[in-house]
Amino acid sequence: MSRVYEDRVKEILANSSDDGKVKSRESTSLEFKENFGFKSLAKYLKTICAFANTQGGILVFGVTDNPRTLKGIDKDKFEQIKIEQLSTYLSEYFSPEIHWDIGVVTFKRKHYGFIAIKEADDKPVICKKNSGDVLKDGDIYYRYRGTSKRIEFPELKRMQIEIREKERKLWMEHIEKISRIGPKNVALLDLYSGKMESSNIANNFVIDEELLAGLKNEVSFVQEGHFKEKEGAPTLKLVGNLAPVDTVVVPNLDPNKDYPFLVKHLADELQIRSYDAQVLVWKLGLKNSKRYAIEVDAGASTIFKYSKYALTAIRDDLAKHEDKKEYLANASKEYQSRNKG
After folding, report:
1. Which domains, and CATH codes, for the chain?
2. Beta strands in the chain (DSSP E)
3. Per its UniProt record, what InterPro entries does this chain match (predicted)?
4. What pTM did the predictor assign?
5. For residue range 164-193, what is the model confidence (pLDDT) as tens digits?
């Protein structure tokens, strides 16, 4: 749990009178709820999305409505909320991914729960699935003075302008680097596929030292003169002050775009049970390679998300077996035997 969010919630609760009346008002970044209940999940999700599309915000549980009074919650019950379950709901209903945190604070001998939402880096966050009359496929939700609703034109227009400005600055940075290096000396590296495109590259290429400085703590490089898998395999020659290691180059990709699947989503795509998808992820060792999976923060814990290559790997593996039911049953036995061991 982030200490920053915890301190912020305590500040909000402290802004109250001696008889427990809360002075803080609901706003573009704050909403109060008396209790947490999964029956109202769609409303919570709508507010979470609205906060992400605005400037971030906090849902505080344990404050009554009209008048707003400090009541508190059942701490044990609130802490039973499963992080992975809530993450799954958010991934099912919204894209790109929403970053959030959850926790409990104690104030004047009472407990209060909170869900804190970070402002989205990749806006807009869009609803992709209906839920009753609350959530609608294709809607973008925004926070307006204590209420969460479908975004209106002025805010959508401003969001589009911000997106274009961010892209413009990124393009300008790339163009400035290309101008400094020279168009003939530049190659394009697709971080998603790993392919290099250039009319001048033969066998070796140079990574710009500024890029190396930014990446050396995040990626590993194949040591010159060493081979990863078999003799004669091509290697990456390093230029610059960086200590090479005998591992494969693995860039940090975008978990929102490059790893869109949870295990449940893989199962839906493959038309198998979520448990069977989890078994095949283990059997194929997909969690061991960033090509297939990445571990991301999900509040107080972490979860794995999977790329389209993971989906393809599992689909190809299933295609090798005529009796898929028997294959999955045997794989399940191996999985259970391994876990018992």
Report:
1. 3-151 (3.30.950.30), 163-203 (no CATH), 204-250 (no CATH), 263-340 (no CATH)
2. 30-33, 57-61, 94-95, 100-107, 110-117, 126-127, 141-144, 147-150, 188-189, 196-197, 293-298, 301-306
3. Schlafen_AlbA_2_dom, Schlafen_AlbA_2_dom_sf
4. 0.60
5. 999 999 899 888 888 877 777 777 776 555
